[in-house]
Structure formats: structure tokens, C-alpha cells
Design goal:
Layout: H1 5-11, H2 23-33, H3 37-48, E1 56-58, E2 64-66, H4 73-84, E3 91-92, E4 94-96, E5 99-101, E6 105-106, H5 107-114, E7 125-129, H6 135-142, E8 147-151, H7 155-167, E9 174-177, E10 190-196, H8 205-213, E11 216-227, E12 236-237, E13 252-253, H9 255-264, E14 268-277, H10 294-297, E15 298-299, E16 302-306, E17 314-321
Parallel strand pairs: 2-4, 3-6, 7-8, 7-10, 8-9, 10-11
Antiparallel strand pairs: 1-2, 4-5, 11-17, 12-13, 14-17, 15-16
Helix pairs in contact: 3-7
Length: 322
């Protein structure tokens, strides 16, 4: 079992305290429904990771931890195997005592694209919706966040996060909760809310935007990254059964459409701060994620199209204020 007691103690003393009215019961129900062999195997891998005292930690420029004395090759191999028990690793990379988790996504590149444009996170309480393994939570802490909370209902991502947290010395500034955004009450308590790579997976994108808005303090900042298409104010792509082999892609807006959606949901100071086509260097197979990746999802004869004939993935970052 994962113990969320430390998180309860932290939020009991801050503006998230009203979350305690529902959160313990939600997480208890989640734990009861996720008792299976794989989850227990992942928990066992975390249990057998060594407790190493970090000597140097860098969360500002990367997610890197080093010990005072290099750990042995044998110990590196043992840690590597325990971490590989939790494959696939999709979001990273992580550099842990000489072990490099080369994840499918270079999530550090996304972070470097958005960090120059967002509000200073120093002393903030922040939320990352659909946070995967929690890579960006650690970068938020590195950028000065007082408390970084991630939500993602997948048991694997919770275990990956807890494994990284243990190797970082049990840092309590970041926490991952296995919940979806629809399970959160209207907290109105986060200074910044991130939603990166989630919107196009929602059947109702406007409902998602309202859910994000309900988590922000007045004047708080939304940082939203999503797939976009080229087009005018009235255009959005609604793919068929699959987009780039993903089944659950519902709406991919043009940039003007996305800005319009944000305005319709009551956000102000809306702007797009970055747009980039996803490259085969940013998303690819590695020894830590060995199944199909972006190269397998594009037309082999025309990389500007997906295998289904849609425009290849292009992502944009939007900033907006509640």
C-alpha cells in the first residue's frame, strides 16, 4: 500500500485543507480497487530499492541525484532491474546515481519551451493534471514551488513516482495522487495549474477547462499544452477511431479555436507562447520503453502525416489567467 499520511498532514495546514473532507475516502477506495499482482510487484520493487542518502540533487536543470561516493556497478545493476520492473517509462529523463532512465519522451524539452513564459513558481502551490510519472512535478519543485501536486489515475505512474521519490531522499515537496480531474472538488486553491497532453483525450474539452479553472485561485495561472492543427477560428479536428494510433483522441483545435475556448470559459490574458512539431528525437523507443512510438505512428512515406492521414502531431502551449 502507498501511505498518503504525509500529504494529509501537509494540506491540513494550508489552503487545501478542505480537500480532506473527501480525499482520504477516495484514495482508500482507489487502493482497494487496485489490488492486483502487477501493482503488488511494483510496490515490491519500490520496497527493495535501497535508501541512499543524496549528496547532490539538481531539480532546476534536470532531475538528477548523486551520492557522495559512487555506488558500485553491482548496486547500479540491481537498482536498474528494479526500475525496469516498472516499464514502460514514458516521461523523463531521470539521472539517478549514475543510472539514466532514458524515457520515451524528452519531457525536459517541453519544460524548457514553457518555463521562460510562465509566472515565477517560487513559493507556489501548483497542480499538474495527468502528470504521468511526475517528471514535471520535480521540475516545478526545482523552479521554486512550495508544493507540487500531481494527479493521474494510473497505478504504474504512482509507483514510478514513488520509486523516484525514494531515490531522491523521500522529498515531500511533490506528491502524486491516483485521481482524475473529475474527482477533485472545486478547490480554488492552486496558484498555477498545468494540463499538458490531456485536453485532446477529453470528450468535452470545455468541461475540462472549467474543471481546471475550478482548481485555481482568483488571478491564478493556467498552463495548457495540447495538440493543435493549422486553421482558423472555426476549425478543430475530430479524428476517427484513431489518431497517431491513439484511440482516445476527441478534439484537436486550431490555435485560434483554442484561444476562443479559453475565453469562452472565462479566462483572461490568453496567449499562445510556443508551438512546435513533435520530432522523432523528442518521442521515440528506448530500452526503457520498447513498444511502438512516434516513428511507428507516422506515414512511412510522408512524415508530415500520421499513419491515418491526419496532420502529424504539433503541440502548442497556452497561458491564461483566472
Amino acid at each position: 500500500m502507498i501511505d498518503f499520511g504525509n500529504f494529509y498532514q501537509i494540506i491540513a495546514k494550508n489552503k487545501l485543507s478542505k480537500w480532506l473532507e473527501v480525499l482520504p475516502a477516495q484514495l482508500a477506495n482507489w487502493q482497494k480497487s487496485n489490488i492486483d499482482n502487477r501493482f503488488n510487484q511494483w510496490l515490491n520493487s519500490i520496497k527493495h530499492l535501497p535508501t541512499i542518502r543524496p549528496y547532490q540533487i539538481d531539480l532546476l536543470n534536470s532531475v538528477t541525484v548523486e551520492s557522495e561516493q559512487p555506488i558500485s556497478i553491482g548496486e547500479q545493476q540491481r537498482i536498474t532491474q528494479l526500475l525496469k520492473n516498472m516499464m514502460p517509462w514514458r516521461k523523463g529523463p531521470f539521472h539517478l546515481y549514475g543510472i539514466n532512465i532514458d524515457t520515451e519522451w524528452r519531457s525536459d524539452w517541453k519544460w524548457e519551451r514553457l518555463i521562460p513564459h510562465i509566472n515565477n513558481l517560487e513559493g507556489q502551490t501548483v497542480l499538474d493534471v495527468g502528470c504521468n510519472s511526475g517528471y514535471h512535478l520535480w521540475r516545478m519543485v526545482g523552479a521554486g514551488a512550495k508544493l507540487a501536486v500531481g494527479i493521474d489515475p494510473m497505478a504504474l505512474y504512482l509507483c514510478q513516482f514513488e520509486a523516484i521519490r525514494k531515490l531522491l531522499g523521500n522529498d515531500q515537496r511533490a506528491h502524486l495522487l491516483p485521481l482524475g480531474i473529475e474527482e477533485l472538488p472545486k478547490l480554488n486553491a492552486f496558484d498555477t495549474v498545468f494540463s499538458m497532453g490531456v485536453l485532446y483525450h477529453r470528450r468535452s474539452p470545455l468541461d475540462h477547462l472549467f474543471q481546471l479553472k475550478d482548481q485555481l485561485v482568483d488571478g491564478g495561472q493556467l498552463v495548457l499544452e495540447t495538440l493543435v492543427i493549422d486553421g482558423d477560428l472555426h476549425q478543430a479536428l475530430m479524428p476517427g477511431e484513431r489518431y497517431a494510433q491513439m484511440r482516445n483522441v476527441y478534439f484537436i483545435p486550431s490555435v485560434p479555436t483554442m484561444i476562443n475556448w479559453l475565453h469562452k470559459c472565462g479566462f483572461s490574458d490568453v496567449k499562445m507562447v510556443d508551438k512546435s512539431v513533435t520530432s522523432l528525437d523528442e518521442q521515440r523507443k528506448t530500452e526503457w520503453m520498447t513498444s511502438d512510438s512516434l516513428a511507428d505512428f507516422l506515414d512511412p512515406n510522408d512524415s508530415s502525416k500520421t499513419i491515418e492521414g491526419y496532420p502529424a502531431p504539433m503541440r502548442a502551449v497556452f497561458i491564461a489567467i483566472k
